[in-house]
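stage 2 :: seqdesign
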């Protein structure tokens, strides 16, 4: 049974139970997890090969190449960065070990602009994820295998709707990072409050406070978009605008539970990051140590995807618990490609049979 808190959330699943249920649903669908990792690998592998060719071309068969392979050759690295362009500009010292995670989080907090090539890869991944998200959410909502036809049928059914929702979410995030962030830090409160300060720790405390305010607002946007996505798929909604409004209503009515569940998922993310920072190797040598570095990095990527899928699955479970129906899904099981019988039921003429010679 659920619990009723100060802010009025009530559901058959508590946030803790929803988090556990989400983990169970992710583990019960290993092919979804593996497929998401494979999609990310196929998207980023060409860029990795291009960067490898750039490094090999610059190093050549030289003594510097042997020294760089054995560890870090700082002088060569600076020389490479000075002449690099495009994807090569991303090859910076901060990519080593756990520093990459810290750099990503720092860039996000400070709204650092992405390199053009990286922005293109991120945009391509978001498009691919918008296609896959419908099938992922549908699979977690039904809690049973869909088969390839059912999974990709759900992907195709919801892809357009999720893309429209993603465009609305992108507009909201643009306002947050382009305007609210600038008002808080660059041209607004922080600049005004620290203009006459002479104590560094006070300036740091003010900046930390503004970070907390900013990310609280980002969390609110995340919650609304997340539950809009869940309601769009689970309730088979067609309007992205009304799904967004429905997501906002759900967050308002179940504020404490939704925040608590978000906190559990965030804690899982932080634990994964902390584990990677603790075990991530630095610049290794060739041979088996290089493969260990690759495997540790891919394990981290896999766990990060598992955390993302856990967000989806636990939010679906919590939403279904609020409806008092653990397996509620409004839409029938989609199929792709549709059979002639399905097309006829939906009022469309079935495809003409293929002629045989």
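stage 2 :: out
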């Amino acid at each position: 049974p659920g619990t009723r808190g100060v802010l009025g959330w009530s559901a058959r699943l508590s946030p803790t139970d929803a988090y556990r249920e989400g983990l169970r649903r992710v583990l019960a669908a290993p092919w979804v997890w593996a497929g998401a990792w494979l999609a990310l690998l196929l998207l980023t592998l060409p860029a990795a090969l291009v960067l490898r060719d750039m490094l090999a071309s610059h190093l050549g068969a030289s003594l510097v190449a042997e020294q760089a392979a054995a560890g870090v050759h700082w002088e060569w690295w600076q020389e490479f960065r000075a002449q690099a362009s495009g994807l090569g500009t991303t090859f910076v010292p901060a990519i080593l070990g756990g520093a990459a995670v810290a750099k990503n989080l720092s860039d996000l907090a400070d709204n650092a602009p992405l390199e053009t090539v990286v922005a293109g890869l991120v945009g391509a991944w978001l498009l691919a994820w918008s296609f896959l998200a419908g099938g992922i959410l549908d699979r977690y909502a039904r809690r049973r295998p869909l088969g390839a036809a059912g999974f990709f049928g759900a992907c195709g059914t919801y892809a357009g709707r999720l893309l429209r929702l993603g465009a609305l979410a992108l507009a909201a995030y643009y306002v947050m990072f382009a305007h609210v962030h600038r008002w808080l830090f660059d041209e607004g409160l922080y600049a005004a409050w620290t203009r006459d300060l002479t104590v560094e720790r006070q300036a740091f405390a003010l900046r930390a406070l503004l970070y907390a305010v900013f990310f609280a607002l980002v969390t609110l946007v995340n919650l609304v978009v997340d539950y809009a996505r869940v309601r769009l798929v689970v309730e088979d909604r067609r309007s992205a605008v009304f799904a967004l409004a429905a997501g906002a209503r759900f967050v308002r009515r179940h504020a404490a539970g939704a925040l608590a569940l978000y906190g559990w998922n965030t804690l899982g993310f932080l634990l994964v990051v902390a584990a990677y920072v603790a075990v991530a190797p630095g610049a290794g040598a060739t041979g088996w140590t290089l493969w260990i570095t690759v495997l540790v990095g891919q394990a981290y990527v896999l766990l990060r995807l598992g955390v993302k899928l856990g967000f989806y699955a636990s939010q679906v479970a919590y939403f279904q618990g609020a409806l008092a129906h653990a397996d509620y899904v409004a839409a029938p099981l989609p199929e792709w490609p549709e059979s002639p019988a399905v097309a006829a039921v939906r009022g469309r003429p079935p495809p003409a049979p293929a002629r045989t010679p």
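stage 3 :: structure notes
- Residues 17 and 307 are 16 Å apart (CA to CA).
- The chain is about 75% helix and 0% strand.
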